[in-house]
Amino acid sequence: MANIQVAFLLSLLMALTFCCLTFAVDPASLQDFCVADSNSQGFACLLIAVKLNGFACKNPAWVQANDFSFSGLHNPGNTGNPFGSAITPVTVAQIPALNTLGISLVRIDYAPWGVVVPHYHPRATEIITVIEGSLEVGFVTSNPDNRLISKTLQKGDVFVFPVGLVHFQRNVGHMNAVTISGLNSQNPGVITIGNAVFGSKPDISTDILAKAFQVDKNIVQQIQGKF
Amino acid sequence: MANIQVAFLLSLLMALTFCCLTFAVDPASLQDFCVADSNSQGFACLLIAVKLNGFACKNPAWVQANDFSFSGLHNPGNTGNPFGSAITPVTVAQIPALNTLGISLVRIDYAPWGVVVPHYHPRATEIITVIEGSLEVGFVTSNPDNRLISKTLQKGDVFVFPVGLVHFQRNVGHMNAVTISGLNSQNPGVITIGNAVFGSKPDISTDILAKAFQVDKNIVQQIQGKF
Amino acid sequence: MANIQVAFLLSLLMALTFCCLTFAVDPASLQDFCVADSNSQGFACLLIAVKLNGFACKNPAWVQANDFSFSGLHNPGNTGNPFGSAITPVTVAQIPALNTLGISLVRIDYAPWGVVVPHYHPRATEIITVIEGSLEVGFVTSNPDNRLISKTLQKGDVFVFPVGLVHFQRNVGHMNAVTISGLNSQNPGVITIGNAVFGSKPDISTDILAKAFQVDKNIVQQIQGKF
Amino acid sequence: MANIQVAFLLSLLMALTFCCLTFAVDPASLQDFCVADSNSQGFACLLIAVKLNGFACKNPAWVQANDFSFSGLHNPGNTGNPFGSAITPVTVAQIPALNTLGISLVRIDYAPWGVVVPHYHPRATEIITVIEGSLEVGFVTSNPDNRLISKTLQKGDVFVFPVGLVHFQRNVGHMNAVTISGLNSQNPGVITIGNAVFGSKPDISTDILAKAFQVDKNIVQQIQGKF
Amino acid sequence: MANIQVAFLLSLLMALTFCCLTFAVDPASLQDFCVADSNSQGFACLLIAVKLNGFACKNPAWVQANDFSFSGLHNPGNTGNPFGSAITPVTVAQIPALNTLGISLVRIDYAPWGVVVPHYHPRATEIITVIEGSLEVGFVTSNPDNRLISKTLQKGDVFVFPVGLVHFQRNVGHMNAVTISGLNSQNPGVITIGNAVFGSKPDISTDILAKAFQVDKNIVQQIQGKF
Amino acid sequence: MANIQVAFLLSLLMALTFCCLTFAVDPASLQDFCVADSNSQGFACLLIAVKLNGFACKNPAWVQANDFSFSGLHNPGNTGNPFGSAITPVTVAQIPALNTLGISLVRIDYAPWGVVVPHYHPRATEIITVIEGSLEVGFVTSNPDNRLISKTLQKGDVFVFPVGLVHFQRNVGHMNAVTISGLNSQNPGVITIGNAVFGSKPDISTDILAKAFQVDKNIVQQIQGKF
């Protein structure tokens, strides 16, 4: 009898584990808020967590002020990397209450001449303001115009990068620069052109990239090697 | 062995309970309907219910006509309270089939001179019609105009309170009045100004409210004492 | 003790089974994709699957290229039926990755003079193109105009059926015809007028249909008998 | 010279008239409200009115309480017609402030045994409540089930017809009946099955309808003749 | 003849002026961007501007980088007012390119003990970060709980005010404080409770407010007198 | 007098021309359809056309079946170009009735080994099916994984490219290949990585691109020279 029970429990566990999905909910709120439930990421996940489009909601009775907050956005990021920039995001991953609410912030630090290389956000427009320093910023419109709209921003300037368009920032001063941006998604997503095109895992065929950028395959391979 | 099993079952139950979230889905339907599943509120909830942005769907094969209906909207509410009004909502809490369908009804009864005090619905526009009696109704526009748009309604009149704006109703006759409203959310939410500002738990600092309403702190405390 | 355990397990199973809901998520993506998790349809369903407005997401780490694909749309459907047409859908039921992405395809084959009888899609506009043959197509506008907008299409022609409007297609050539359509929902839904009105289970009252179509009840019953 | 001027003015007028479009805006409000501007329907229309997806907004400074209201919903409609029912809609056509707000009401009167024949709303779910009398109501689910979900409602009962599904109402009492419904669109649209299928202008081919309803062409022609 | 022409031109002008509406478009972009066209506010407005739900788009060929930017967010606002706070918004009114893009920023300055009194945004969630100083912030949930969720924030802290909920901020330090917030609407709207309830034009009936706040009418009148 | 009139008319015309905007509406339909009005592109445009987020609607009474159709999708495109591919779109620019309906089609022809180089659609998911030939297709997920999900498709295979992700296609056979895709936007937009990054007008700073792709500036300049 006991053996049967153990077998039963094991199969129950296996079934539950097999079911281990992960939920995510949509931004159109149907209640005051839907704080993302972090339990869906832990051991309990083995039993019932299910991935959704967004996250499941914590029981509102258990919600605390801390679920709505994050600390440390005043701390400079570490710009000691090849790009000379550091990104500190505050999305639903940092503040679970952002789930279903459709907004996030990001702080970026730039060493002198540091760059945030061309990238785009598939799910958000970005509105950026310069807290310190001066920056060259720009974005490129879609086909067929591919017009570069750019500007040099000073402290206190604000600029907009429309959703889905490739954009970049560069510190054009000899001092560190800092920006804060708002983005209208709980999880804007980032697609860095270099990473997506030359650094995918596995690589996109050299032949395709050679045609795309109209260069020799060995230059493509040389760039792929860097990523 | 049995002890181990009991311990195992208890830990399983604890884990499952810990996981007890609650689902809620978004209003953009992806099937004919998604009747809210009431089991997610009972004992079974201990095992798998998860809170969502909305509710999980009952298996369509088990759906009955009763899931789409509610009885008793012809019954007068009890207006024997300080406001002289009574609210009978028909939202997703009363009709589970309203889940994901984005609409609800409400009946309101008003004793003579009864009032529905200033409040707003964060998720719905309200369209109200007078079944019996005559009412003064009004709403206030946002900053900076804060214009009051009001009207006295008679039987058969219809009026609109735009989403998110503060509004109120008052019976201006010597007889009972009755209204029926449609609201375009399965769960419109209600924020009564008095409750939110003077009756929150815990209280908002007296100092803040004294500044907000430009009155002495003791008047603020006096009002807070009533809620 | 063992009996208690068995009883406990059985009640656990019953509770879990009772809970067996089914999830479904909304089309506004909050991540790159949310591949529908097929496990929510199998035995595991007995334990935790929950029906949602859409589907739960497969763990992105387990996603494969096959989750994004379907094979066989070049195969003619079997038009050996009273309507002389065959429908091959490619919706979220065929490609789980379509979950939350809001699009689907359908291939339709038409025998000579084959018909797709009047129907509508409650959740999608359809854009159709003729791969082979020539077709008469049309749709009817809403009340009060009920205007028929129709056209005979040749190979390479494209036509649009707006969301929610009754439309039809008929092969007007002596050869087989083939069309491919895009529809902007992962699950457009199909409501065939004949089935919904004369073939519902149970039947709509003969009296109501006799009034609706202004015919004798026995004609209504005759038509109902065919469905 | 004068002739040239006249010619110029005439061509100017012609061009403007030719341009006479009509605007309509989307339900996601970007301000407190956007009262539909009725001037776009008058003479001025000759000069600049443009049809939109919705309507253009009246200058908010000119908005009046009357723009938010309608009178007469307590008046019975005239049920002296073959269906024995009368529909009194309160949509954006009756209350211009409903523009962009996504809701409307409708009153329906039913003579004894009066019917609202099978129809659907492509853009709204309907929540109906019985003010007087008793009604049989029902709707049919989409393919492949085509399940009829129906119920007899008494005074004070509420029922839901999900968006896009075919539904009907019938007075099953010997007295007049009255219902009020909320619908979550400023312009829900109505598609009456009989009108759309047998009463379109011009007619759908007899041949197609004969196949659709599996009846002789002369029965189809007989029904078409009634519409 | 000339008189006729002058009369004609005048009536043309009158008609055009009469038509002077103002356009506004919805946030779901259908192109890279839709920069709000400022001409609809000037003299040209007399001729064709029409108010919309949002704004009409500037011809993309005429768009400049300046349409995407704003300067001066580093400048402290003037907190010399009864509330001791100053608000510097950057919405579609300041950056026309924000039209249809669904995001905005705001800088707030707080004198020591300065307050942003209880208010809400009907169309946006706010994510706030403290640039300088320390602040008490809080929001209140909807009926029936009316729970106050509050926290004291330090420099670098981030907090979220969910859409439609009443919230406030207070400088709890002896130095000036500064915050920057992102809001997910091009035009979030602000409804200050005090202004809407006690400062509307015209006033809400004293009787209604006395009931709402359960105080004497003369206290209501005293508060109304301040606004 | 005549001179004054001429001057007046000229200034009127100038004002109107200055106003020459262009309307565009949002995809959430508020009527059966909103056929894009082509007059807003012609001479009449000088007088009243206004750019919108989408397009203004043609008067429904003037709508024709041709507004819903397009011919020629069976015609091979000309693949005699460096990429060996040709794109034939059917968007709102080709079928005005697609305005507000949220869908479009595209045919692509591929010469042997022809490539559609890496690109993305900011506003649409693409579902592609192979009509002739065999293709290698793939897309890359967002940061930080940048996983390439790819597959070789045969005739009759269907594949999905999620909205906003970089993807590509390559003919891997010795014969011509043909695909047809559905995209869930009336105007999906195309951003070709090469064009946006190396071919913008004006160029993005060589310095930024050298950092982005971790190559020498002269290689960047060499690539920029090709675009």
From TrEMBL, chains A, B, C, D, E, F:
GO terms for molecular function: manganese ion binding. One of its GO terms (cellular component) is apoplast. InterPro entries: Cupin_1 (IPR006045), Germin (IPR001929), Germin_Mn-BS (IPR019780), RmlC-like_jellyroll (IPR014710), RmlC_Cupin_sf (IPR011051). Residues 71-221 form the Cupin type-1 domain. The keyword Metal-binding applies. Oxalate binds at residues 121, 126. Belongs to the germin family. This is Germin-like protein. PANTHER family: GERMIN-LIKE PROTEIN SUBFAMILY 3 MEMBER 3.
